[in-house]
Structures are given as C-alpha cells and as structure tokens.
C-alpha cells in the first residue's frame, strides 16, 4: 500500500500516517543486518524493491547529483578539468579532487570509474 502511494519502500521510521509500519520497516532492516531474517522473507521484500541500506541510497544519489554537475561543467567547458578551488561551485571542485584521490588509491568502485571514464574524466597520477 505504501509503495503504491509513494512509488518506493522508503517508509520513514516515524511515519505519522502509520507509526507501526515505520517501526516494522526499521525492525526488518535491523534483523536483516543481524542476519536473523529468513531467506524467503528477504526475497519477498526484495521482490517489491525493499531498500535495506537507506544510507547507501543517499550516498549514491549524492554521487549521481555531483556526476550530473560534472556533466554540466563538461558541456560548458569541453572537459572535466574542474579546478580544485572552482569559484563558481567549490563543492564540485572538491568532489572532483576527491574522485581523483579515490581513484589513485583504487578506492573508487569500478562502476564509478567506468562512468567517469565514459565522459573523458582525467585522473592525474592514476595507474
């Protein structure tokens, strides 16, 4: 019912409309991470798009938003060479610098590396 109305399974912990549902969802996530949930329950929840780690979802959404800003920068400037101290958007400059650092330390996921490489991202001192 919640998914049909909201298009996702991200029920807030304190869901005023149905507080019991919010608590139930929180309990499911906790039990999942403690490996105390039966596999058929996991599969049933996953079949409706249940999100186990909301924090990961937020991190990925933030990364995607910054990637979109990098695409816009590339459209305007013809490259992805955002200065570390980019005056128009300091956050983008820091993010690009961070991606280069993570890449050089091999701490950037292969999926993200591929996305960056697909737009001509330049990584200095990267192997």
TrEMBL record:
InterPro entries: Helicase_assoc. Gene3D superfamilies: 6.10.140.530. It comes from the Eukaryota. Residues 1-50, 60-121 form the Helicase-associated domain. It holds the Pfam family HA. This is Helicase-associated domain-containing protein. It comes from Pseudo-nitzschia australis.
């Amino acid at each position: 019912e919640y998914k049909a109305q909201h298009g996702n399974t991200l029920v807030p912990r304190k869901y005023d409309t149905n507080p019991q549902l919010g608590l139930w969802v929180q309990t499911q996530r906790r039990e999942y991470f403690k490996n105390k949930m039966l596999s058929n329950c996991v599969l049933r929840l996953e079949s409706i798009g249940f999100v186990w780690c909301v924090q990961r979802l937020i991190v990925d959404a933030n990364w995607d938003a910054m990637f979109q800003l990098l695409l816009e920068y590339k459209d305007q400037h013809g490259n992805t060479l955002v200065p570390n101290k980019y005056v128009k958007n300091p956050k983008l400059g820091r993010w690009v610098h961070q991606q280069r650092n993570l890449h050089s330390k091999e701490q950037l996921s292969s999926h993200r590396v591929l996305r960056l490489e697909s737009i001509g991202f330049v990584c200095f001192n990267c192997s």
